[in-house]
Structures are given as structure tokens and as C-alpha cells.
Amino acid sequence: MRWIRCLAVGVLTLTLTACATSPTGRQQLTLVSDAQLNQMGQQAFKQYQQELPSAGDASQRYAQCVAGALVRVLPERERQQDWQIRVFEEERANAFALPGGYMGVTTGLLEIAETQDQLAAVVGHEIGHVLARHANERVSTQMATELGLSVLSTTASMQGPGGQQLMGALGLGAQFGILLPFSRRHESEADAIGLRLMADAGFDPRQSLALWDNMSAASGDGRPPVWMSTHPSHGQRVAGLQAQMDSAMARYEQARQAGRQPDCRRP
User: What region holds the Peptidase M48 domain (predicted)?
Assistant: First the structure.
């Protein structure tokens, strides 16, 4: 049992020394090298481009215009990343962000994002994931959770069938009490970062609400309960955006007065 206590202390020490702070001021656990994750993101992005058909040039220019306007208002350090965005021919509405600044959107999403401002809400959200190092945090949380459960599993195996039942309950608790809520927290944080970012770039932040209304209408029913989902519910998402809208509108007016008025033509 002594080695179990030592391992637990080691895990705690590692956790305390691997803390970072997100752009919203939230404490994070980051155990993985950003350089390593960025390289993996680059490799995954290349694979996406090899396996998925790309949309036409007009769609690529449109997405690059919106992304470029958002990247230009990032702090200098973040602007230096190799930001890239591609539009893929895919009927399903989807968007993703990979470590290192590699992003993708589908033509199905362009159908739902009806204006440049709505597309900016999507791309700003994806940039938010990258800025907040959510990929690193998710991997780190998974690693820490699995290590903690392995320690508990060793203890439970010494306690007979009752201990195994306890481990089954702990496994479910980790999934629905730690990992999934963490993903919902990431989504809400990316919403907040993206809202500020689109406003700073001169895109109308009110269109983020219209976008999520469109997304909700397109998704229909059949979604899992919010406590089993990796995303906030539609109502939670809209409420979060509305709570920050006054601040975002003030930033938007300042951006427009400063001459930041994007003009990205939808194909």
C-alpha cells in the first residue's frame, strides 16, 4: 500500500506543477508539450486534406477572408502561428480546430452560416479552442484520470467483488462527472473567446445568436441529455452568449470606429 500512496503523491505533485491559465483566467492542467501537439495537429490536417475533397476556390477564399480578419486582431504572439483554414466538401455541418492553428469547415456548415458574421462566430469559436489550449487540456485530463483510476483499480482488486463494483461506478463517475463536463466547459469558453474575437475584428456579435438558432433548427431532436453531451444545450449556449453581449457590442462599436469592417463575399 505504501507504493500506492507514493504514486498518488506523485500524481498530485505532477498536477500542481503542470498548471496553466486559459485566456479567460481559468486554471488548466497541461501535461503535454505544445510543440508535440502542434506537430500532431499539422500531420492530422495534412491527412484530412488527403482524404476529404476540398471545396471550390470561391469557398476557400471566403473562409480565408473571414479567418484572416479574425487572426489580424490576435495578440502578436498568437498571430505568429501557422493559421490555416480549409473548406471541405461535406453535406454534414461541421467545423474543427487542431493544435497549431489548423482549422476546417464543411460546405454543409457554410449553408447554415448564412452571413460572414455567422461564419466568423464559427471560426472565432474554433480559434478560441486553439488559444485556450483545449486539446492539451483534454489529453492531460484523460491521462490524469486514467492514472488515477489505475491506482484505485489496484486498491479495489484487493477488496474482492465489492471493490470491482466500486470501480465500475468510479468509471462512470469519471466519464460523466469529469471528462464530459470538461468538454462542455471548453465549448462555453470557446464561445466566450470567439464572441470577443469576432467583435474585435468588426463582425456583428449578435449574429452568433442567429447562427446557433440555425444550428439548432438544422440539428432537430434526438440529442442526448445535456449531462451526457460534450456540448452545452442550445439554451445554455444562447444564455451564455447573451450574458456577454453588452460587452461584445461595446468592442464591436470600437472596432467599427477604428475602421475594422470586414467585407468577405459569400460564394
Answer: 77-243
Q: Give domain status of residue 181, yes or no.
A: yes
Instruction: Say which of 91, 126, 137, 189 is annotated catalytic.
Output: 126
Is-catalytic flag, 89?
A: no
204: left (phi over 0), alpha (psi -120 to 50) or beta: beta
Tell me, yes or no, whether 249 lies in a domain. yes
| Residue 66, domain extent | 31-257
Q: What is the pLDDT of residues 132-168, one digit of tens each?
A: 887 777 776 676 565 544 544 444 444 455 444 444 4
Name which of 24-28, 45-49, 54-58 the model is least confident about: 24-28
Quick check: is 67 in a domain?
A: yes
Domain total in the chain: 1
Average pLDDT over residues 168-180: 43
Q: What pLDDT was estimated at residue 127?
A: 94
In a domain, 12, yes or no: no
